Amino acid sequence: MVNMVICLVSLAFYKIAFSSIELPSDVIVPKISGIRTISVEKSDGLYFYMFSGSIDASRFSSNMMIKSPKSIRFSNTFYYPPDRSYYGMAYFEDPTNNNKLVIIFGGIGLDGVYGDIWAYNIDMDIWKKFDFELPEPCYDFAYTSFIDPITNKTIIVISGGLNNMNTYVNKAYKCIIEDKYCELIKSLEDCFDYGIVGAELLYIDDYLLLFSGYYYYRSNESDNIVINRAICQINLIENSIHLILTDSTGAFNGGSCYYNNSIYSFFGFTYYDYIKKIESIYITDIIDFIPTKISIKCPKDLECARGSFAISCNENNVTILGGISKSGPTNSYFTIDLDILEVVDYKEELNYPSPRAFASLS
């Protein structure tokens, strides 16, 4: 089906390269896409946690990958979630024992589409599967997480995506981690007739803003791909929903951050009878919702434009890791300072000999 082809077409871009000699300093992470990340500040700097991800159309990296300021390594556990990509990720501090947890939910792997929810303990390096699941298995959905200002509980919101029947999900759900419970927030039919895939979701002052992504409609017995150029706004207090029309160029499988009362949208793909990478970022003020196109000067030995990457927003610093660039899946990463709109730190792509689940890398 066209929707499955578009959602996973990025996996066809893969290109695994091997060098004749691998020095220890060159052995880093596999080239992966369809990944997410959570960043956690520790005494020695910022740590990034990334799970699994697609190496190519039939292979996945395994387990949790941890990037510290000095090294990159994999979790040493033998019990962990099935390999997958296009999942969701959130951070949770358990109030009962102060455990710091990275939550993994949904996604797609060799066994199909997942609806399970797992927790990775950062300090103890162990996994635990929760005894509740998403309302329906799905992947390539938009998601966000936040602390409810009234209950002080951790909320994960999931919107759109594709389910295990390969049909569009046209609903928004929320899961309350402390209560181990998920429920429907709202149907998205007032914004999208058929659903939305590869979109972005931000929580801002009791509002959910769902934007970017793509959907399709059927006419004359053919599927037509449509890039979403509008913003679907959900008011969580009034439980209302309406569509905000914008002048966005539209993208899917990109990334976004909220900073200084604006939405920063990074790269991703668009579709004009073929898949095309977006070379720029866009800044959209949340007052008038008018996007401004910004070009980032990329280091000459780095391909910045990419899609299906992991993104971490830390105040004015945005770090982008992995994904699919012009040359295929990549293991490069870079940080953009939003105050000066420049790349301030990066690591160019290096070859990786073969993926290993439990390797300790530097």
Question: What are the salient characteristics of this protein?
Answer:
46% strand, globular, mainly beta, 34 strands, 5-stranded antiparallel sheet, 2% helix, Neuraminidase, disordered N terminus, 362 residues
Write the layout of secondary structure elements.
Elements: H1 2-8, E1 37-42, E2 45-51, E3 64-67, E4 72-74, E5 88-93, E6 100-105, E7 108-109, E8 112-113, E9 117-121, E10 126-129, E11 138-139, E12 142-147, E13 154-159, E14 162-163, E15 171-176, E16 181-187, E17 197-204, E18 207-219, E19 222-227, E20 230-235, E21 240-245, E22 255-259, E23 262-266, E24 269-271, E25 275-277, E26 281-285, E27 291-294, E28 310-314, E29 317-321, E30 324-325, E31 328-329, E32 333-337, E33 342-347, E34 360-361
Antiparallel strand pairs: 1-2, 2-3, 3-4, 4-34, 5-6, 6-9, 7-8, 9-10, 11-14, 12-13, 13-15, 15-16, 17-18, 18-19, 18-20, 20-21, 22-23, 23-26, 24-25, 26-27, 28-29, 29-32, 30-31, 32-33
Keywords: Signal
Signal peptide: 1-19
